[in-house]
Description:
With about 575 residues, the chain is of the alpha+beta class. It is built from 18 helices and 16 strands.
Amino acid sequence: MDVNPQMKKVIVLVWFLMVPAGLWFTFHHYPPSISLQWWDVLAFLLLTTAVASMPIVINDIYIFLIQWVALATFLRFGLFVEIIFAQFAVVVLLLKLRILRKGEFFRLPLNLNMFFLVSFFSGFLYYLWGGKTGTNLVFDSHSVWLAVLYVVTNYALNQIILSCNLYFIYKRKESYFGKDFVVETITTFITLPIGFVLYILYNQLGVLSLLCVGIPFVSLAIIFNLYYSSEKINDYLQKAAEIGHQMAECLHVKDVLDLFIEKLCEMLPVDYAYILEAEGDKLKLIRRIEAGMEHSNDTELLKINEGISGMVWASQKAFLFKTRKEWTRFTSDYIPNDVESIIGVPIVRSNKLMGVLLLASRRKRAFEKSQLMIIDILCSHFAVAIENATNYEQTKRQSERCALTHLYNYRYFENLLTDEYEKLSHFDRGALSLIILDIDHFKQVNDTYGHQSGNEILFELASRLTKLVGGTGTVARYGGEEFVVLLPDMPKEGAIHMAELIRQSIANWPFILSQSMDIDKKTQQVKITASIGVATAPEDADDPLALIRHADRALYVGAKRAGRNRVAEYVK
Length: 572
């Protein structure tokens, strides 16, 4: 959530104008007891620090349960000390969360302002109603109700100010009173009685009371966090298994790459993602995602031990860098300057390195060791999915292509024609033209120069057709020396013009043969011609088979019988 730069300056200015002056006012009007012992204050400060540095995680919500310590501190030492401790606790909390990164430092004065206002007004109301603090506080019914008033005021002000911050500073329009609010409210009021117990025990037992109350609470926080960590890892493992299944269902390499990157960016705080493929003794960047956008892969190939990717490749081990200082000695041209945290993982299949995955974040310590393990597992799934998709594409390509000319074969062409005619029927196409060409007297070429030379001519002709047609249509080998060109959204006049260009490119430029039966094995030039038929739907045909039949009729009746080396259109 972006915050206006002017608002950030206002937040810092408010802290400078309000907090120091507020502390001075509090010290003079509600001074701490002169009988304070420094070890008492230090003991409570250490407890505050311990609790603040160990927030409890419940359902991905960080709960900072320092209110009970603040209550005991307030009742024991008064408002001034409680405000100082609260300010210190905020710093500890934010350092623990590691959110004081570049551009986010305003969050420190923002939270300091909030905690100051909460502490000041809660204490002010407590004193206003006749409340007392110190070692001689007697817990009669009036004192208990005042303490409850302090607690309720403290919590209510905290929620109100937090809600205002979200609305006016972060511009969040959604309701604040959601799952986070319910969880925090319940846990806060459950733990607040501990504050009363701590105050009473401290008056009786001294520092020992901090151990009696603090150690169980801190232990509970540690247990909660360990449980949360295990739950989080289990959740990651479950997600990794789901992603692995999803990638296994992808039949194309591009789909596997897209899904892999998308899921990684959803699961982890990834700002930049790179996938590099091993090509011989170098690494080639094949996918580059920066700030959610795909960018060009035009970068130089990396050698072994060159940059972070080269180091991961050479060692075939995963690496985790938490800050820029840890990886800055390695040079990587494509990694942006604002990157802090990096994860590098080798992509290995059957003990063979297929590539390298790099994930980067602008945040320091954005990734954890447990996440490194999960990514390593995902890379194994990814390697298998890529291999399967590659094999599928290769098999599909072989089943759809002519092995000699590398053009599409009859089976693919037939399916494509049916699909295109379906689009024509639903008015998604304006016209559908078909060109059929047959090489004139091709048997004589084979008989004179040999079948190897005939194959050379077919291969060269396929190359010429592909270049001429380009992206306007699809070229396929129809069988033997026959070729077809399917032209979606091209009227008959355009198709006839294209057919004439094809005829001229065949007739006017000889074909070079290097595999002829010539004894001296010299290259030879051979001139050939082709007869071409053209038909267009819907004017010439009502179905796909009729379109083929009518274009074939134009080829043999209008071109072959008329003398060959010509273009003929179907005429009803």
